[in-house]
Amino acid sequence: MTLYLKNIFNDAGNVTQFTLRFFKELFKPPFQFREFIRQCFVVGYKTLPLISITGFIMGLVLTIQSRPTLLKFGAESWLPSMVSLSLIREIAPVVTALICAGKIASGIGAELGSMKVTEQIDAMEVSAINPYKYLVVTRILATTLMVPLLVIYADFIGIYGGYVGYNIHGSMTLFRYFSDVLEHLEFLDFFPAVIKTFFFGFFIGLIGSYKGFNASNGTASVGIAANEAVVAASLSVFIIDMMAVQLTDLFF
Predict the structure, then answer these.
(1) Element (H, E) at 233
(2) What are the entry keywords (predicted)?
(3) Please, what sign has the CA dihedral across residues 224, 229, 234, 239?
(4) Cβ atoms of 24 and 81 closer than 8 Å
């Protein structure tokens, strides 16, 4: 038990140092703009197909399953606004972040872990290149920026999926559907949901980078780093979401 607690505190201290180093290196030149843009492409563009499919299915399934309940109360007209609010406030941000945790955090953990094991990171240090700034800072910045954009994209795709689901049993034009959505959508429905996605993205990139950058020697450690990155990043998404809901309810 003592050893277990000691490992927990050691990990907490190491993560804190790793995070503080990120903010220290963030504002120090040189700035790796080219690598940052490349990571934005890898994190954002290459994740779009998966987010598109998931977002569309979320909106479609939520609409189809919610319709019978609303019909019992004669409130079918509320279906577009209910689906859109559910997606924007909670479902799309959390599900998209979990997908990113599974795909992006594991990818970063495995990539940096393999570089650590094959001593590529040591070679960068010998070549007078700051591996932390080149490998870690760019990836954390990319996930922090791209995850919110992916969530906003998933919101629109999910609302369109709701439109398709609504027209399976009903009939409504796309313009009328989006008009109903925007009529009941307020700024405070959208703003807190977007703000928390920046924290989702930051911790997904941070945890994936930390696990990969600190992988131990041996090829087995690459898989361990990727697996631990997924678990820890997914757990962080739920914890951040829980805190965000409490703060939103308190201040808004």
Answers:
(1) helix 220-251
(2) Membrane, Transmembrane, Transmembrane helix
(3) positive
(4) no
Residue range 122-135, pLDDT digits in tens? 888 888 788 889 99
In a domain, 157, yes or no: yes
CB atoms within 10 A of CB 197: 28
Instruction: Please give the C-alpha separations between residue 245 and each of 16, 90, 105, in angstroms, as whole numbers.
Output: 25, 9, 24
Q: Report residue 204 as tokens.
A: 């997904």
Give the span between the Cα atoms of 106 and 233, in whole angstroms: 9
CA distance 9 to 99: 29
Nearest-angstrom CA–CA distance, 25 and 20: 9
Give the tens place of pLDDT for each residue, 76-122: 778 888 889 999 999 999 999 999 999 999 999 999 988 888 888 88
Task: Centre a 10 Å sphere on the Cβ of residue 220 and count the other Cβ atoms it contains.
Answer: 11
Q: Give the predicted TM-score (pTM) of the model.
A: 0.91
**Token pair in block for residue 210:** 């930390």
Q: How far apart are CA 69 and CA 66, in angstroms?
A: 6
Contact 47, 104 (CB under 8 A): yes
Q: How many CB atoms lie within 10 A of CB 109?
A: 30
Residue 91, burial from CB neighbour count under 10 angstroms (0-12, 13-18, 19+): buried
Count of structural domains, the chain? 1
Rounded Cα distance between 173 and 98, Å, is: 32
Q: What pLDDT, on the 0 to 100 scale, is given for residue 222?
A: 85
Structure tokens at 186: 């307020």
Separation between Cα atoms, residue 206 and residue 137, nearest integer Å: 9
Domain extent for 198: 53-73+80-247
